[in-house]
Amino acid sequence: MARDRSKDIYILDMPLPIAILAALSACVSLGFLGARVVYRPFRAPSASMQPAIAPGDYFIADKFAYANGRSPKRGDIVVFRPDTHPDRSFVKRVVGIGGDTVQISDGVLRVNGRAITSAPTSTLTLDDSWGGEVAYDVSNETSADSVRYRVLSLHAEPGVVTQTCDVPAGLPADTPGAESMCSESKPEGVTPGDDTQVYKVPDGYLFMLGDNRDNSADSRFEMGGFGYVPVASVCGKVTYVMGNETYIPQVLGAMRP
């Protein structure tokens, strides 16, 4: 199945009533009712960070998590504005910092030559953007900074191969020469992001990945993604997921006149 990154563009500021509720809830739950606003609320429109952050989730980013000389660690989920899209906010996980080497080989993330992705531990079925369902393998990762989290990859049925053909509309697939328009056959579930070059992260930059590895535009892709991200572009660290739009608006609806 081809990767769908059409919705993986940027995260959105949530509506004002949601923002007020989320900010107040965060302040109360964290005992923070000071004058400074240190948390900023957002809403995720895509599935690129599942299972940690689902489409429609409202979450809070701590704007001062990296103040006073503190820097993002491997495994942190952060909000940032890359140089390629300075007017848009993204949310991804930091997997590499300045000086690290990062590579994905056969779906396994390697940082500084060490594999940090486990073998799949379970499967998970999620809704896709076409109204159907997609099966994913669930694996664990533990960063060099000891942050443990789960990642998703498209489930591959053993022995099943797929082939992508860009045959022009109206041209029968068995037309002589049409086979030259077909890509190499690969096992089902294998996508271009599953095997990458070795990236050397420059000092002062970060390498970002989505936890939903086969449905994320991130540092792996210059086209459609954003490459390395300057540390200075990070807006905050995601610290709290408030809930999902499917039920929070219902609660707010009861509060409206």
Plain-language structure description:
- The protein has about 260 residues and is mainly beta.
- The chain has a single domain (about 15-255), classed as Umud Fragment, subunit A.
- Helices cover about 10% and strands about 30% of the residues.
- It is built from two helices and 16 strands.
- It has helices spanning about 15-30, 250-255, and strands at about 40-45, 55-60, 75-80, 90-95, 100-105, 110, 115, 120-125, 135-140, 150-155, 160, 185, 200, 205-210, 230, 235-245.
- A seven-stranded antiparallel β-sheet has the order 1-2-16-3-4-14-15, covered by helices on one side. It has a four-stranded antiparallel β-sheet with strand order 7-6-5-13, with no helix packed on it. A three-stranded antiparallel β-sheet has the order 8-9-10, with no helix packed on it.
- Strand 8 and strand 9 form a beta hairpin.
- The model is unreliable at about 1-10, about 25-35, about 160-170, about 180 and about 250-255 (pLDDT under 50).
Give the key terms.
16 strands, seven-stranded antiparallel sheet, mainly beta, disordered C terminus, four-stranded antiparallel sheet, Umud Fragment, subunit A, 257 residues
Question: Care to give the gist of this entry?
Answer:
The chain has 257 residues and is mainly beta.
List the helices and strands and how they pair.
Elements (H helix, E strand, L loop, with lengths): L15 H14 L9 E5 L13 E6 L14 E4 L9 E8 L3 E5 L2 E4 L2 E2 L6 E6 L5 E10 L5 E7 L6 E2 L23 E2 L11 E2 L4 E5 L19 E2 L3 E11 L3 H6 L4
Antiparallel strand pairs: 1-2, 2-16, 3-4, 3-16, 4-14, 5-6, 5-13, 6-7, 8-9, 9-10, 11-12, 14-15
